[in-house]
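Lab notebook, page 48
Experiment: co-folding of the full assembly
Goal: obtain a model of how the components sit together before planning crosslinking
Operator: M.T.
Materials (sequences as entered):
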Amino acid sequence: MKEESPKRGEITEMIESILEVSRRKADEIIAQAKEQASKIVEEAERRANRIVEAKRKEIERKVKDEVAKKSSTVEIRIRREILMMQKRYLDLLFDKVREKLSLVAEGKLSGWDYEEILSHYTREAAKAIGTNKLYIWGRKKDLPILRKVADRLSKEMKVDLRVDEGRSAFIIGGIIARDEKDSLRFYNTFDGRLVDYREKNEPKVIDLLFGRE
Amino acid sequence: MPRLVELIVEADEKSKQMLEEARKKAREIVEEAERKAREIVEEAERSAETMVLGTDIDEIVEKEVKRITEEMKERLARIEEAAKKNFDKVVEVVLREVILGEGGKS
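Observation: model returned without errors.
Model output:
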């Protein structure tokens, strides 16, 4: 009887050990299952996000495409309106300048001396033609001024400068000059200068008028 | 000795049972996770479908186009306003340059 007690203790220990191993293994199985479950749910959440995100992007793309299509039509229409408006204002502006040139030629715009302008234009013409004898003409009503200018510049420039009394031009103002044989002409009229100016400077005038965007 | 064998067999049985229960519980945990995963995906699909049905693309496009149109019209108005403001000043500049040449001293 004395020898059986330790044996029983050993047996209990052995049994306990068997059960402990099984308990640990069981815990391990559960832990692995929990980990697997967690991965399954995480993967499902990722998939769900991808599904929603893909749909959201599809809608956004659709909207973007439609907006681009429709707004380009609007942009083209308004750009055309802007160009038309710019042309309207440019036409108005050059009409206004033309009106003011008429006033200058009538001597009705303060700050401008028409006789001085004609002298300046004649001087330019004489230099450009470069002959000793030349004729100038302009509006019929400018004859008295042209005569004065011719007299003055003949002396000043030492050239034979005369008014072509037989000719007149339907212009806003300014002069036309020719050499004796009429083989060379120089047009220095308000009309010509205005047309020339618009051709060369329209982009600059657009900037001045509308400002840079 | 027979008692010892009996006890060991009993412990072994208990152990097998314990593992069996653990495996069963593990299967249940995984099955529950799979069920939950299916639900999550189905819910996402439903939600994506609702997103499509609930999104009035035409309305959004209309609003956006309206916004762009307003912006362009404002730009048009701004340009016209500038033209009105600068008109007289530019007339004087052009007049001067036409008469005297560019730079005002031809």
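Interpretation: Chain B touches chain A through 64 residues (CB under 8 Å).
Next step: discuss with group before ordering constructs.
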